[in-house]
């Protein structure tokens, strides 16, 4: 075996340092003057389980924006009753964690989700029910569970998680299309560097979890996988010593975000999922492509009608040709209207005060009925469907329902549409 001399080694180290990648955050701007309507009349325009441990070779090394030694503690499968104990331990140590939660668990423990959020921790999406056979049979099922969980979390915290962790990790489960479409939809997928193996079998003792952490290779940036799901009492027991171990080695504790380039396992699809059906381009255009707008940080739109106001966050509305387009159910239910789905007619039926509006998802025909005089009027309105939601021009929608727009304004912090 030939010896490597010191000068050669120094050259290699310098070369490696120069290869560090630096990532600057993306910024999005929106013209504050868009969305004005000078004509208050109704105007119609055309519509534009157990974790799978990947072998070391399957890890893709991530590049980070910081040079500090940072460890990211992550917790999967919660929230449960154990999550409160995890939060208390993190609080005592004055550090923050990242929680990849299940939608079904968030429904059971909304108060814990609120505590996670209000304590300054980060919440990520871990699908709704963690069922491998459904999630990895085809991408549309995975996507559906992500969106289902996303809405549950938005209703609890007011925000949408941009981070995703695949149940069991991506190794053996994701193909290139999963990665590509989730990125296209505005999400960041995170695997891990260090697996505590707390989900390798039932009741793994705390001493073994601690040993697994200490045997893992130390490096500048480390993502640690743990679980706060039911039955992981030993993880809670091990957590203080795991924290102490990284503190003793000079690590700071951080939370994951889209600005942190993630560790992702290389693609290797298990034969079990080899026959999965890929989504069509039409499905991708309707669901994935418009989804990224949900995470663009434009100014919110405040809508006021009938004495009730609601805020539509960036991505929950769209400015198109100087008009606001909104998801019908989302905006109207927040304003106090009742929206029901008529499956036979493939239409949304809106009831608000003395008016009933029928909006068909597959046509531009909208029917209005007024209880006062039993009148019936048909309008031609540009309607589109995205992520199973009907989108419609806001002004047209409000005016058909008896709330004409009296003011539209754009300020530095928000847009406003005020109707009677």
From TrEMBL:
What is the protein name given in its UniProt record?
Polysaccharide deacetylase
Q: Which InterPro entries match?
A: Cu_amine_oxidase-like_N (IPR012854), Glyco_hydro/deAcase_b/a-brl (IPR011330), Mao_N_sf (IPR036582), NODB_dom (IPR002509), Polysacc_deacetylase_ArnD (IPR050248)
Q: Kindly list the biological process annotations in GO that this record carries.
A: carbohydrate metabolic process
Endpoints of the signal sequence = none
Entry's Gene Ontology molecular function annotations? hydrolase activity, acting on carbon-nitrogen (but not peptide) bonds
Q: Where is the NodB homology domain?
A: 69-254
Q: Which CDD domains does the entry link to?
A: CE4_SmPgdA_like
Species source reads Paenibacillus zeisoli
- Read off the Gene3D superfamilies from this record: Copper amine oxidase-like, N-terminal domain, Glycoside hydrolase/deacetylase
